[in-house]
What we know:
Blueprint: H1 11-23, H2 28-40, H3 51-58, H4 62-76
Helix pairs in contact: 1-2, 2-4, 3-4
Amino acid sequence: MEKRWVVELSHEEREQLEQLIHKGNVAGYTIKHAQMLLKADEGEQGTSWSDTRIAEAYNVSESTIRKLTGLFSSWII
Length: 77
């Protein structure tokens, strides 16, 4: 299925997400969301995984990925 939302993280956004992941005192779902956003990143440093691949890797539905990337996209606009 085609991506509905495109995530392009800036260098600063990537750093913030990576720091959040390694912080240690953050809720598990927050870490998982940060990891999924990093995988969805289509920027210069991103991995640009498909929604399907992310969903399979993190054992979530594709609709969860679309909601997460949609929320992120609307947050940065």
